[in-house]
Write a structure and sequence with these properties.
By secondary structure, the protein is an alpha+beta fold. 36% of the residues lie in helices and 33% in strands. The protein contains 2 helices and 13 strands. The protein has helices spanning 2-23, 122-168, and strands spanning 26-28, 33-38, 42-43, 52-57, 61-63, 66-69, 74-83, 93-103, 106-109, 114-118, 174-175, 180-184, 189-191. Strand 5 and strand 6 (66-69) form a beta hairpin.
């Protein structure tokens, strides 16, 4: 009778422990997509390259049919590239990269691609402001003073267009808290 109870106790203990051990280890393969939710906001206006940003895993990372990194695991990211917006020709950019994930109280270094964005299209928009100002100034100058007035008006219009582009062209990127970013794992990492 005692041996049956002992056998049942051992069986029950193994039934509880083995699934936990199977879930707690595995390898995250190269090419695996992981989505992180930021815990704090970060902006191209104030961020510095190398700055730490915290977040948490948005979804379980599964490998071989097992959860290797559970949803909600703490993630540390780094600002990998940043540039504040310039007035006329420098678009804002902001990219982050995952550098560490914590699973079961243990931190693991992880190499991923960068995720972020660049604000584009400023050059065409600014050219439109400047060119439109020059053309409008030339028409007004031609009506007011002929050929010489057209040249003066074009120069004044171009200056006004450049000022308009500069005044409205400074747009930075901001990832508010709870922004979801998706990264690609670049090298396999084993989670124990």
């Amino acid at each position: 009778m005692k041996s049956q109870i002992r056998f049942a106790s051992i069986f029950l203990a193994l039934a509880l422990v083995l699934p936990a051990l199977a879930q707690a280890s595995g390898t995250v393969l190269e090419g695996t997509k992981i989505t992180v939710v930021t815990d704090q906001s970060v902006s191209s206006k104030t961020a510095k390259a190398g700055q730490s940003v915290t977040g948490s895993l948005a979804h379980d990372v599964i490998s071989g049919g097992r959860v290797v990194i559970p949803k909600g695991s703490a993630v540390k990211m780094t600002v990998s590239a940043v540039q504040a917006s310039g007035r006329l020709s420098t678009p804002a950019k902001l990219y982050l990269r995952v550098r560490m994930v914590t699973v079961g109280g243990k931190a693991y270094t992880i190499a991923t691609s960068s995720a972020g964005r660049i604000l584009g299209g400023k050059g065409k928009r600014d050219a439109g402001f400047i060119g439109g100002g020059a053309a409008g100034g030339a028409v007004i100058g031609a009506l007011a003073g002929g050929g010489k007035g057209a040249a003066i008006g074009a120069a004044a219009g171009a200056g006004a267009g450049t000022a308009g582009a500069a005044a409205t062209g400074k747009k930075d990127i901001e990832f508010p808290a709870e922004t979801k970013l998706t990264f690609t794992v670049r090298a396999p990492v084993t989670i124990n």
